[in-house]
Design goal:
heterotrimer, B: alpha/beta, Rossmann fold, Alpha-Beta Plaits, 2 domains, 4-stranded antiparallel β-sheet, 12 helices, 13 strands, globular, C: mainly alpha, 73% helix, 0% strand
């Protein structure tokens, strides 16, 4: 029991420290928030001009608005980016510090990311609330009727989507032990996620082949599943859940394997 | 030979810095409310430097050495006061002026990291409009002096720190600057490499009659290169003159090294001065500067002295003492 | 004239240095070239999805849209080739204080800052952009006249200079704002505005993006020139605003330099 108290004390201290560090970058974070929200507003303009000239539109503007709003929300709450700079730390040999401390590199990544994410959520929430309010005023925001179950499952899915995103970023980071272009993989990750997780346009508007591809693989949990849960009140099936947890288990296992192997390669390569 | 090349009068530079309170609360509070403080990095400094001089700037970290150099290079606008270098006002940043001086910052580099140094040299040739013949001649000379013939063809990132610094120097000197500002040029280098660079700087100074201002943490650099030093502390000039005079001005003690023909007790030495080292057959004593000779004579009389040496206190110690006292009285 | 020759020479020396650097990291180049091609394809795909819902975007047909996207791809490739790395370095120089080294050189600092670097990763996108333009022109059976091709080319240059000027101004903000590594994402963040017809924006947004900060003209106006539906006033405004923003960027830089106090001591 004492050990647990000690551990949680340690974790809260580290997170607090990381939080202070992240606060220094608040201007940068606000800029990221604006850069996340801005394209969304432009997309609304584009769709407005598309739908206004279409004789029998297959979707309404409010539906589209809620869809893209949910995309930003899910993105803000779950996306991780650390694979853009962590691989460099491995390649440049900067993880030495963590190999000699009772605080592993993976712990560092996790705690750092959690603190950063908390701050980001704290900062983006007022923006999202304001945006939602304005859209609602403009009559563009059709809030669907949701039960408590839906909300709870949505929150759960957000958390799991974050873990999934985190694992993918960590997986890419781990490849830095072997692969020079690990940072560039980040770009491919974003590309693949954008294409196959249902962020582009509402699921129903995707071509049939892309609907099938999206449905058949776990990236759909990053966007399509939580968004459809809200917009279509579609709860994930038992099969979905097992696919999600199976994927997570597989990813975590792979990461640990890569870490073990990588660290061996790293320390034997020294000089 | 001795018209002033650099004239600085009543130079001041004030910075506004922001103070962050510690802790999470401090971070959050600083979102709304920030406290600022004015720091006088350079506070009313005047001096002139003549052509061909090598002058050392001495001072602790943050004393204002680099800030002064930056104002002399036209990088910082002074808060007040005036500067003239080679007859130019540096912060007009005229090309004609820029082609006649060079600034070397030991901790920053201008070489292209991924390419051999020679590429940066060629680039500088174009930037400084150096005629081909002169470029070849200067480059050859510098490369030979510093013995880096092979290194300049190798990617900079693969060079050792010492080789890299040599190449940095070459890049800075290709246009034969008449005035050279060196900020910590030997930082991080080993003793041998420091010596090589020092010899080179002194050689360059002699050959081209260049005026050099040098700042360094290593007293050896200053001792070997500079006859004249300017000491700066908290933005103020506290000494300007010959290096050798620092000793007579600030040193209070001399060191007596003694070797005895037979064992001597420690107690018998204490009446002459402060005993720094003692092991029976030899000892070192710290005695007042003025009375050193008298004490030495008395020692020779009363103790079995085989060998005796009177030494000045090392420069480092004097300087440490000067700045230490200042810090205490401030 | 003498000065121009010097700058011309140095400009090409920089290109040579960058080419040597690229050869040094061939694998890197190929990898990023592939990534850039994939993103370009992705962008075309995204608009094809929108065009499935309706045949037109703000009155532009699918073929016209692809021509617009082709034009945007050319501009975007140019932007990433010449601006991104330089601006990235520029802000890093400001943050680390190493701008000092550049200021002591007898050459225009703006020139050094904005031409010293470039990337070759995007060269294949020029081909994709050209292909998209040629194919869509062919499908619409439009043969542009020589004069409109020439005007198109100049309008593209004006557009590129405009992007350069506003990007340079955005980067210059780094003198005031520390801890802002993503300052160079601001202009790329506006790219969605550049790649759609200017008619998409109505009301206040139209005033903002076509008059005050005319980024929605950069690809639209050149495309309209090729499609022979350009309006003179917008063509003129593109050229004028590009010229004005260059002047402003220059003024802003010198203002910033004036109150520049190098970091550290």
């Amino acid at each position: 029991m004492n050990r647990i108290a000690q551990q949680s004390n340690f974790y809260s201290k580290v997170i607090r420290f990381k939080f202070i560090k992240a606060l220094q970058w608040r201007t940068e974070m606000i800029l990221w928030i604006l850069l996340d929200i801005f394209p969304f507003i432009i997309l609304l303009f584009i769709w407005q001009s598309v739908l206004s000239l279409s004789a029998s539109p297959s979707i309404s503007l409010p539906e589209l608005t809620v869809f893209y709003y949910l995309v930003i929300l899910v993105q803000g709450f779950t996306v991780t980016h650390f694979e853009e700079y962590r691989p460099e730390e491995i390649r440049m040999g900067k993880i030495d510090f963590f190999l000699i401390k009772p605080y592993s590199f993976i712990q560092e990544i996790i705690l750092n990311d959690i603190a950063g994410k908390l701050l980001y959520i704290l900062m983006i929430s007022p923006f999202l609330a304001l945006l939602g309010y304005i859209l609602w005023h403009l009559g563009l925001f059709a809030i669907p009727a949701l039960t408590t179950i839906h909300v709870l499952v949505f929150v759960c899915l957000l958390l799991l989507a974050y873990i999934l995103q985190f694992c993918l970023s960590l997986l890419i980071t781990m490849t830095a032990f072997w692969f020079e272009e690990a940072q560039g993989l980040s770009n491919l990750k974003i590309l693949v996620i954008s294409l196959f997780s249902g962020t582009l346009i509402p699921f129903a508007l995707l071509p049939e082949w892309l609907q099938k591809v999206t449905n058949a693989q776990p990236l759909k949990f990053l966007f399509a599943v939580p968004i459809r849960l809200i917009q279509e009140q579609a709860l994930p099936t038992a099969q979905d859940w097992s696919m999600l947890f199976g994927t997570l288990a597989f990813l975590i296992g792979t990461i640990f394997l890569l870490w073990q192997r990588g660290i061996q390669k790293y320390s034997s390569a020294g000089g | 030979m001795s018209q002033p090349v650099i004239t600085v009068s009543n130079l001041k530079k004030h910075f506004t810095v922001y103070k962050k309170q510690p802790g999470l609360l401090g971070s959050i509070r600083s979102l709304w409310h920030r406290e600022y403080e004015t720091v006088a990095a350079v506070d009313d400094i005047s001096f002139t430097i003549n052509q061909g001089e090598i002058v050392g700037f001495i001072g602790q970290n943050g004393a204002g050495k680099t800030t002064t150099l930056k104002m002399l290079s036209g990088l910082l606008y002074p808060t007040s006061g005036s500067v003239s270098v080679l007859g130019y006002n540096p912060w007009n940043r005229k090309s004609a002026f820029q082609k006649q001086f060079s600034l070397v910052l030991g901790q920053k580099n201008q070489l292209w990291w991924d390419l051999p140094a020679i590429e940066t040299f060629l680039l500088n040739q174009a930037i400084y409009d150096i005629p081909e013949a002169q470029f070849r001649k200067t480059l050859n000379k510098l490369v030979n002096l510093l013995d880096v013939k092979d290194s300049i063809q190798i990617q900079v990132r693969k060079l050792s720190l010492g080789q890299r610094m040599k190449c940095e120097l070459i890049a800075a000197l290709l246009h034969n600057p008449k005035v050279l500002f060196l900020d910590e040029p030997t930082i991080g280098l080993d003793v041998v490499m420091q010596k090589t660079l020092r010899d080179f700087i002194s050689e360059y100074n002699r050959e081209f009659g260049a005026t050099v201002i040098l700042t360094s943490h290593y007293m050896d650099d200053v001792k070997e290169l500079c006859k004249r030093v300017i000491m700066i502390d908290h933005g103020k000039k506290i000494y300007d003159g010959l290096l050798s005079n620092i000793i007579s001005k600030y040193a209070r003690n001399k060191t007596l090294s003694l070797v005895f023909s037979e064992s001597v007790t420690k107690k018998s030495l204490t009446e002459f001065g402060t005993v720094k080292n003692w092991n029976g057959s030899s000892a070192t004593l710290l005695v007042s500067r003025k009375e050193a000779t008298k004490i030495a004579a008395r020692l020779l009389e009363s103790l079995p002295v085989q060998d005796l040496n009177i030494e000045e206190a090392p420069l480092e110690a004097i300087i440490r003492e000067v700045f230490g006292n200042k810090a205490k009285s401030a | 004239m003498q000065a121009f020759k010097k700058y011309w020479k140095i400009f090409w020396r920089f290109r040579k240095l960058e080419l040597m650097r690229m050869m040094e990291y061939r694998g890197d180049f190929l990898f990023w070239a592939l990534v850039s091609i994939l993103w370009t394809g992705f962008n075309f795909f995204f608009f094809s999805l929108i065009l499935r819902v309706s045949d037109t975007v703000a009155g532009w047909t699918a073929d016209e849209m692809y021509l617009l996207l082709g034009t945007f791809t050319l501009l975007d490739a140019f932007t990433w080739t010449f601006f991104y790395q330089n601006m990235q370095r520029y802000t890093r120089h400001v943050f680390t204080g190493s701008l000092t080294m550049l200021l002591t050189k007898p050459i225009s600092t703006i020139f050094l800052l904005t031409t010293s670097s470039n990337s070759f990763n995007n060269i294949f996108r020029f081909l994709i952009g050209c292909a998209a333009i040629v194919i869509s022109l062919h499908r619409m059976e439009i043969t542009p006249s020589i004069s409109s091709v020439v005007l198109y080319f100049f309008a593209l240059m004006a557009a590129a200079l405009f992007i350069y000027a506003i990007w340079f101004m955005a980067s210059t903000l780094s003198f005031w704002i520390e801890k802002l590594d993503n300052i160079n994402e601001i202009i790329p963040g506006l790219r969605r505005v550049m790649q759609v017809p200017r008619g998409v924006f109505a009301g206040a947004a139209s005033v903002l993006f076509t008059v005050l900060l005319p980024i929605s003209l950069v690809a639209s106006v050149p495309s309209e020139i090729l499609l022979q539906k350009a309006e003179t006033k917008w063509v003129v405004w593109l050229f004028v605003s590009s010229f004005l923003s260059l002047l402003l960027a220059r003024k802003f830089f010198y203002f910033a330099i004036k109150r520049y106090s190098s970091v550290g001591n």
